[in-house]
Amino acid sequence: MSGDCVVGPGGRRVLVEDALSEYGDFLVAGKGVAVATRECYLRHVRTFLSELADRSGAVDLQAVSALQVRSFVTERGGRYAPESLKLTATAVRSFLRFAWMSGWTGSDLTGAVGTVVTHRSGRLPKALTAEQMHQLLASPDRRTLTGVRDYALLLLLSRLGLRAGEAAGLRLEDINWQAGTVTATVKGGGTLTFPIPRDVGQALVGYLQRRATAVGYREVLLQVRGEPRPMTRFAVTEVVSRHAAAAGLGTVRPPAASLRGPSRAGRGRHPGRGWRAARPHHRPGHHGLRVLRSRLVGSTGPAVADGGRR
C-alpha cells in the first residue's frame, strides 16, 4: 500500500482516495479493463468505502467485517434495480479480492457479498419492516422444543444474515464462545466468522439446553420429529415459510434479501451499526458457557437440563 497510511488505535488505516487509486491502477494494468468499466467499478467501491470511512476520509480495511460487507449489499436490495445491484456486488467483490491479495484485509471477504438474484418480477423482495420481523419471531411457540429451535434458527438467519444452507451446516465446534463468534461455511467452501449478538447467543443456549444430547451428529440444528438428524437447507427454508405464513407475511424464504436484512431497519445507515458485537457483557451467563462447553467436548458429552419434547 502507498505511504499515505495512518496507524491509529483502531489499526492500519488508508485514505479512501489512495485505496481507490491503487485499485484503479490494478484494474487497468492487471486486469486490462476498459476505462469506462474502471470508472464504473470505482464509483461503486467509493460508495462502499465512504460508508466505512471516518471523518478524516480514512478506512481501517483490517477491521472491515463480513457483516458490514453483507449489509452494504443487502440494504440496497429495495432501492436498486436488480442489474444495478448486481453491478454493485460485482464491483465490491472485485475490490475485496484485490484487497485480500494485497494483504489489506485480515481475511477473504469476497464470500460475504453473496449472490444477487433477479426475480421474475424484475425487483428484489423488499426487506421486512421491524414490526413484520417482530411478528415473524413471535410465531414459534417457545414452550416447545420445536419452537425454541425455530426461534434460534430465525435469529441466525435474520441477525447474522446466514443463508439456509449456511445455517443448516453450522456445527457445534463452529461456535467460539470465548471469542463471541460463530463461523459459517459458505458457498465455494470458504468460511466467514460473525460476532454473536446477545439475543442470538441467548437463543442458541436456550435451544442447546433442550435439544437431544446423546446423538452422533455435530450439527447445531437437528430435526425434532423422529430421529434427531441434522436439518437440511430445504428443512430450514420450510421452517421460514411456515412461520411467515403463520404470521400473515406471505412467502418469505431464505436467502432472500427480505429476511437477511430485516432487523437492520431503522438502525441507521452505517453498515455495521445496530449489530451487537459479542463483548463479555453481551454474552449469556456462566451457565450458558457451561452448556456450550459441554456440547463442544464431544457428541456424547455430559447431559444438561433437558426440557424434553412438548
What can you see in these coordinates?
The chain has helices at 16-30, 35-52, 66-74, 82-101, 130-138, 145-159, 164-168, 198-210, 233-246, 257-260, 286-297; strands spanning 5-8, 11-15, 58-59, 175-176, 181-185, 191-195. The protein is mainly alpha-helical. The protein folds into 2 domains: 5-113, Orthogonal Bundle (DNA polymerase, domain 1), CATH 1.10.150.130; 130-297, Orthogonal Bundle (hpI Integrase, Chain A). It has a 3-stranded antiparallel beta sheet. The chain is elongated, with a radius of gyration of 21 Å.
Short description:
The chain is built from eleven helices and six strands. With 310 residues, it is mainly alpha-helical. Strand 4 (175-176) and strand 5 form a beta hairpin.
